[in-house]
Predict the structure.
Amino acid sequence: METNYLILGASHAGLSALESIRRHDQESSLTIVTAEPDHLYSPTALPYVIAGKTSKGFMDIRKEDYFYTLNANLIKDARATGLDTAKKQVVLNHGIEINYDKLLIATGAAAWVPPVPGLDGVDYFCIRTLEDATVIRKNMTKGDSAVVIGAGFIGMHAAENLANAGLRVSVVETLDRIMPASFDAEASRRIEKVFLDKGITILTGRQVSSAGRSNGRIVLSLSDGENISADLVIVAAGISPNTGFLKGSGINCEQGIVVDERLRTSAGNVWAAGDVAAAPGFFSGSRAVGGTIPCAAEQGRTAGMDMAGDDYVTDYPGNLNMNTFGFFDNFAFSIGNIANHSSQKGSEVHSSDDPAGKPAGSPANNSFWKFVFQDNALTGVSAINCKLDPGILKQLILNKTDLSSRKEAFIKAPLEVGRQLMRELF
């Protein structure tokens, strides 16, 4: 089989690349491969599957005629098992060989399971696919307690859904606070309090040192000597890029496929985007997996334009943290260099415990925002239950907008001043 463009992966990065290619090149042959057997979905839908708030038929991120409209050949239920960059050939798991002119690797990541002694001998679940979410949903009724290993977005979403299902839930996190990669300490504390008030036990600063079974239940031993037992264990400790099939390909991989500002890999005519790609960071320039949907979509857009030879392509600005988190009728978001802002020399921080402009219906006494500035430019935002526009704030950070003459006004009325600044910029 031969194709001009080959895209491995049909989630946000792959689909964004497909659309960018077709905006410039509508005629060349294009093939897109997905490991999913049926539905194409966003990972953001998985918590709703676990909660029973949606079904397979209502979670597709593209309509059935999408690929036909874009003149794309979709191959479902298939995975790449090998890549020969000299031959420009990908081999799929059922033996199909695809020769390409240009290749995008957007294979995403799998759940990373920590090397806990005994964990392989007990039943545990991860949350990366629709099948994972469906299996967890079925097993939630088989006991009355659950332990979640990891307090990032996936872990805390799981904890909320398990608690709403009536289970007693404990969350174990190695670091000293929940959601440590996304929120600053104050926002983490406020989010944690909501979970504690819902009866969820949060155990930070501790690791699971071993796992086993006793009296029909799973028993986890923690690094401080405490033992906790449960009927259900969810592992949400991180991700591992899907790069196994690249062995022998010569493509440079270091905790992900190393890419440049155009998402090009070390091999000619091969690009990578999404959770499989180690791209430069917006602030540091050091390469890492972005790990968010906005990063994946923007990387896919840049890669697709570059693959198609679009004259309007620009360099990927770098991974910029942007996360939104809805939990127990609360809403939080973070953008930019916020999680560890205290380590930034010369940073200027402004915060409000109960800002004006709260959304209607937001919980009382749980509104908060924090802005971090560096050299009069906004570099980070953290907010809970605030009437702000994350899109505008992201653009102010990306544009490194000089706020020196309007900083005071911006701090007093960030929504209104932010909108005015965007009107002037664009």
User: Anything to note?
Assistant: The chain has three domains: 2-110+240-308, 113-237, 330-425.
